[in-house]
Specification:
Blueprint: H1 10-15, E1 20-22, E2 40-46, H2 52-68, E3 72-78, H3 83-93, E4 101-104, H4 109-112, E5 124-128, E6 145-150, H5 153-168, E7 174-180, H6 186-199, E8 205-212, H7 217-230, E9 236-239, H8 242-254, E10 263-268, H9 271-279, E11 284-287, H10 290-305, E12 313-315, E13 326-327, H11 329-332
Parallel strand pairs: 2-3, 2-4, 4-5, 5-6, 6-12, 7-8, 7-9, 9-10, 10-11
Antiparallel strand pairs: 1-3, 11-13
């Protein structure tokens, strides 16, 4: 399976946010067509259609639909990283007969639960985080969600923090900066809580600052630049997103600090992150496989629409095959051809 997303495809993906993409008609499977016998209509609700991760998920959905040989029309909707916007979109696409199914990357799965139970029988598959009150429960929590393609965010964050513990074992004090996406989002609050719980077990670790990166390089560059003015001697930057770590690298370089002299980690598995870990500039990265996650989501959704058996929980970490999700230079050496599924 191809493990990279070419940058040249992104303009096409963003354009789909304002128009319906009609995929080639290849003959729908029995029972899988819409009620009028025409194409299936599937809505893809992105937390942000401008975000590279969401674009990669959409690319996976598109690939799976093409591979199915069915007549399907996709519409990508931009949630603008706004929970209320996405809630309204979910209510709209599931309130009538216009759509046969939905794939969603929730901005906030807890608040999105307000759209459920649905007013129709439109099946929904969620990617990256669940929909419902418990951010770490992957089994569908609300009627209408048929499958979740994700892993527990708290468990993933614990793994990242354990890597910091190991690095800091012989450093006293070991000064850590937590660089978290959005501290008002349930997903990122769960991640930070896990970071704090693990790091608090070591008396030598001092979390000197916790700042938001908003999944954006420039925002993170500014945030880490400000941190370095007060704490120029930090040892670790623990980030949950590769875009944020990339911004932190620039901040360190601007401050005359060699990024390789710190313990840098990120999350997402971008092409740049994988290369940085291989080179030793970053010490670790928690790899995601968003194209494969989009493919898996579309496969489960098409099965649900056809009345076939659906896998309620798809382990996102297992979608990388032989690639170890928690990546170091040593683990990546065992899969030398892997470059990452996306960039952003």
């Amino acid at each position: 399976m191809e493990r990279s997303v070419k940058k040249s495809s992104r303009a096409t993906l963003v354009a789909a946010a304002v128009s319906i993409l009609a995929l080639p008609a290849c003959g729908a499977a029995d029972g899988a067509a819409s009620d009028d016998g025409g194409a299936l209509n599937i809505a893809v609700l992105a937390s942000s259609s401008q975000n590279g991760y969401n674009q990669a998920v959409y690319e996976g959905v598109r690939k799976a639909v093409e591979a199915s040989g069915q007549d399907v029309e996709l519409k990508l909707l931009d949630g603008q990283f706004d929970s209320n916007t996405q809630l309204s979109q979910m209510q709209n696409v599931t309130s009538g007969d216009d759509y046969d199914g939905v794939v969603v990357v929730p901005n906030d799965g807890v608040s999105l639960a307000a759209a459920f139970p649905l007013s129709s029988d439109v099946p929904v598959v969620t990617v990256l985080n669940p929909i419902g009150p418990d951010i770490d429960t992957m089994t569908p929590q609300v009627d209408g969600v048929v499958s979740t393609v994700a892993v527990s965010p708290s468990a993933a964050a614990e793994k990242q923090a354990e890597g910091v513990l190991e690095h800091c074992a012989d450093i006293d004090p070991c000064k850590v900066v937590e660089l978290v996406g959005n501290l008002s989002a349930t997903l990122d609050v769960a991640r930070k809580d896990s970071y704090d719980e693990v790091l608090s077990t070591a008396a030598n670790i001092e979390v000197v600052s916790a700042v938001e990166g908003q999944y954006d390089r420039d925002t993170s560059l500014s945030a880490i630049s400000n941190v370095l003015q007060a704490h120029p001697d930090i040892d670790v930057i623990l980030s949950n997103a590769d875009q944020q770590t990339s911004g932190a690298v620039i901040a360190l370089q601007n401050a005359g600090i060699d990024p390789a002299s710190l313990y840098l980690t990120g999350g997402g598995g971008t092409e740049d992150a994988v290369a940085a870990v291989r080179a030793g500039t970053w010490k670790a990265d928690y790899i995601n496989f968003p194209v494969s996650m989009g493919e898996a989501a579309a496969e489960q959704l098409l099965a649900a629409i056809a009345g076939e058996e659906v896998t309620e929980v798809v382990d996102a970490d297992a979608l990388g095959g032989d690639v170890e999700p928690y990546a170091t230079a040593e683990t990546l050496a065992t899969t030398p051809d892997f470059t990452g599924e996306w960039n952003g």
